[in-house]
Structures
1.
Amino acid sequence: MALAAKKQASYDDLFSLPDNMVGEIIDGELIATPRPSRRHGVAASVLGYELGPPYQLGRGGGPGGWIIIDEPEISLGAHILVPDLAGWRSERFLASEQTNWISVSPDWVCEILSPKTVGLDKVRKMPIYAQHGIAHLWLVDPAAKTLDVFRLESNRWVLLATFIENDKVRAEPFQEIEIELGNLWLE
């Protein structure tokens, strides 16, 4: 007996998901995950707040020149991914497109790990980010209170540093400012 071919997901399939789900398309598969937990949300919000003013707006001694977005839809070839945070150098960012998704690969992505998404983020999404030349990747784990900082070198992720708990962090590509890692954790 022949097996039926699995239907390839399309962008329109994302509209069928409930509002409390985040939808992505990876290797033709529609992947739906629940909205982030409060621990996850706090880490993402605080990190976005730490990076946005100095890097997007040039405030507080930061260099400016970046566009940083929470949970953007990004088209990477046949994939539609939604990292928790992504950043583009301003000169590479398209201010408008005909689609809802962003078609330009970011210069940096950050995934906030949770028990339900850790495998997806590390096993399926990290290789796609590498294939599309995203130069920097951060993995934040609120449960372990860690930040792993990666740089893409020769199409492979190289772990540059791991920070933990209350470390003071200066990390690529945002090394001009210091981030107090302890502010990301919901106590």
2.
Amino acid sequence: MSDIGIDRPRSDLALPVGGDVKDFVALLKPRVMSLVIFTALVGMVAAPGGIHPLLGGIALLSIAVGAGASGALNMWYDADIDAQMARTAARPIPRGKVTPSEALCFGTILSVLSVLCLGLLVNWVAGALLALTIAFYIFVYTMWLKRRTSQNIVIGGAAGAFPPMVGWAAVTGSVSLESILLFAIIFMWTPPHFWALSLYRARDYERVGVPMLPVVAGLVETRRQILIYSVLLLPIGMSPWFIGLGGIAYLVTSSVLGAYFLWLAVDVYRIKDDDTDADARAKRLFLFSIFYLFALFAVLLLEHSALRLIGWLA
């Protein structure tokens, strides 16, 4: 673990105000939000018992708004480095569409409202978990880990793994082994997913001084870590079947896709420094990792939806 400390410039980055609705929507990181909503929905559907459709909708909306609020606060804090990175330079704050203070107020208000709404209208276990998710992403990952250690994405990745647990708690009012396993799948998936991206974006992170693993430990070590986490991910991805949370369709899907995920990780591990297709191979793993996670949760959703339908028709 690296202990590199990087101080964030404290300038307010004063920018002209000209944001419209689409700019504030962009602050919510819609693509990230869509994955949060989907995994939270799977947690709700897979949970035992049921929830009134209105309360279920409120829970999903609260989780979505909480995730979006986290994104806005992340963009507020990281505005200085976002402006210098090709991947993030088009975000609303670097483009001058939204000021940092507007993003801070927007994210803070949405954070409070999402937690209160979920807690008061659904249950406080889910509300507390949502509050923990937001706080972990902002204070632990964004403010503490991201600029100080190469293990930032390993520990900070927990924030992205909470949504199915929050969805489960919205239905049951509790945390169980099943929801912890859903958390564990995303938690173990995050490092190889994000490190694959960082392999071909390493220059961006190096330029802004963020100690992502390729910058601190080098490309070879990053590839080795991707392989290690991919090996660990394979059985964890299959684990819902072993406890009855997933059916035979899930077992087949998680086995086949997990094996292919591992094969791609091995392919990335075998990259040599002079390989001209190194970035393409890393990008292939990154893109497949998104499909892998979506497919696993989609099969769980279909299996549990089918079981509920059969139960209603019986």
